[in-house]
Amino acid sequence: MKAEEITKALNWRYAVKTFDTERKVSDTDLHAILESGRLAPSTIGLEPWKFIVVKNPEVRAKLRAVGYDQTKITDASHLVVIAYRTDGAALPAELIARMGAAQNKTAQELDGLMQMATGAAAHADMKAQAYIPLGMMVETAALMGIDTGPMEGFDSAQVNEILGLGAKNLAAATMLAIGYRGDDAYATLPKTRRAYGEVVEVIE
């Protein structure tokens, strides 16, 4: 994909407020979007997140009730809750197990990494990490011509309770509505962004 095509897709993208309830994202396309989140970078590769795809209409209605009645929660083709791990101390051992299996190495051979990962897990902001895959999914969807609506406007404690996240050592960081824009007045508004030179500073 050429640079201008990427820029065009990102200019086309906006945070959709109203979704077309009749149009659905295919399983193949949804998988690609979620896969881009799975492949997102994280501190030392800890991957302190989980993506919960909420299909159940009743559960989505409950989430809408604690999400300031945002219609996108129920109307979008798919709703993904991006949660972060609350048991950070468990992540280094999981990383070593994954890496050991992938690289055919023993825990002893990966001891240095284990020490680094333990230090990183103690200091990393796990909730902040969860926004990395969010960004990846939003961009991937835009490149595919699929709309998204990221959300922070919800009662996280209520979302955690509705989805039973606490028992899974998880907490909701953000939610992402995925689908196709409907009759949304925001779709035709000009994009408002700071100028490139105001945002980008080059030190030579």
Can you offer a commentary on this structure?
There is one protein chain. The protein has 204 residues and is an alpha+beta fold. The chain has one domain: NADH Oxidase, CATH 3.40.109. The protein contains ten helices and four strands. It has helices spanning 3-12, 27-38, 57-65, 72-75, 91-103, 111-123, 126-129, 131-143, 156-163, 196-199; strands at 49-54, 78-85, 147-151, 170-179. A four-stranded antiparallel β-sheet has the order 1-2-4-3, sandwiched between helices. The longest helix has 13 residues, at 91-103.
| CATH top level class name | Alpha Beta
Total domains: 1
Query: Low-confidence parts, pLDDT < 50 over ≥5 residues?
Result: none
| First and last CA, distance | 29 Å
Estimate the mean pLDDT confidence: 97
Beta-strand segment tally = 4
The dominant shape is globular
CATH-assigned fold name: NADH Oxidase
Strand-residue fraction?
5-15%
CATH superfamily: NADH Oxidase
Q: Which series of helices and strands comes N to C? A: HHEHHEHHHHEHEH
Class computed from helices, strands and strand pairing: alpha+beta
Number of helices: 10
Radius of gyration: 19 Å
Largest sheet: 4 strands, antiparallel
Order of strands, main sheet, comes to: 1-2-4-3
Helix amount, in percent? 40-55%
